[in-house]
Design goal:
It is a single chain. This protein is an all-alpha fold. The chain has a domain of 79 residues. Helix content is 75%, strand content 0%. Helix 2 crosses helix 3 and helix 2 packs across helix 4.
Length: 118
């Protein structure tokens, strides 16, 4: 699949996405509930964005190197959240939403590659 942006732009986009994600995960207080389970949706969308940005930033790497790291990062970062911020607690549902977000990014890129290849 041809890439639109050069590598420095893709890396900057990934670093920005990672910075926002880490801020959201490790801030002292949980984000406000905008609606029922809004935090799960935020986890899903944040990790989907991270997955898309990471895969595009490291396009030269094989996918089987990038995706496992991203899939493991979801539960790991959710666990690390309670270590870094003792007021926050581990949530298995948040870890699952993180993993689902990465899987969603995988599906989006897979579909995009198939669409571009036709």
């Amino acid at each position: 699949m041809p890439l639109i942006f050069n590598r420095p732009v893709r890396l900057a986009l990934f670093m920005g996405c990672l910075t926002l994600l880490l801020y959201g995960l490790f801030r002292p207080q949980s984000p406000p509930d905008l609606f029922s389970h809004s935090d799960k949706w935020m986890h899903l969308l944040a990790f989907c964005a991270l997955g898309l940005c990471a895969r595009l930033a490291f396009w030269e790497w094989r996918g089987h190197l990038v995706w496992p790291l991203l899939l493991l990062s979801g539960p790991f970062l959710e666990y690390a959240q309670q270590v870094v911020q003792p007021a926050r607690v581990f949530s298995a549902m948040d870890a699952l939403a993180n993993t689902a977000g990465v899987l969603m990014a995988m599906l989006i890129l897979f579909a995009a590659e198939k669409w571009v290849a036709r």
